[in-house]
Amino acid sequence: MRNVLMVVSGPSGVGKGTLVKRLCAEREDVVESVSCTTREPRKGEIHGREYYFISMSEFQRRIKEGDFLEYDEHFGNFYGTPISFVREQLKTRSVVLEIDVVGGKIAKEAFPECILIMIAPPSLEALKGRLISRNSETAEEIENRLSRLEYELSQASSYDYVIVNDDLETAYRDLNELIDAEKLKA
Q1: Which H/E stretch holds residue 77?
Q2: Can you identify the CATH homologous superfamily of domain 5-184?
Q3: Cα torsion angle, 10, 97, 79, 55, sign
């Protein structure tokens, strides 16, 4: 079986993080890439686990050095995938990038064999409820994230697969089976 690079994208609160975390916890042959960000850690987040929390000056330096497979700015903060991590991990296992649609397009350009997977909400109302219930953002931040929803979902046609996360167990099963199929491709 081959190792594959996969991008999992979707609007904030759609459940992509939950799906990716479970996938990587249950499969030794899949690892999640840890991105760098200039934003402050949320409660409970640990440097090197959820993100590498770095300064804006370090992020800019690493851009100039070509250290990111992809990077972008969201809501005033920068996020980027260290290319060295991806290349090293692909030698022994598959890598999942949980990144936005802009990063997904850039990753596909850099690695044409990259598999793009969109996680979509069953409805706008369900997504808004999830964002509110996770209680990690202000009302203004939630509205900013919802305003980006239409754009993100409009990019689904450029993705290889779309999984609607209406039921977490079904979405997880679909994601797991999709990865197995991709790893078996000649």
Answers
A1: strand 77-82
A2: P-loop containing nucleotide triphosphate hydrolases (3.40.50.300)
A3: positive
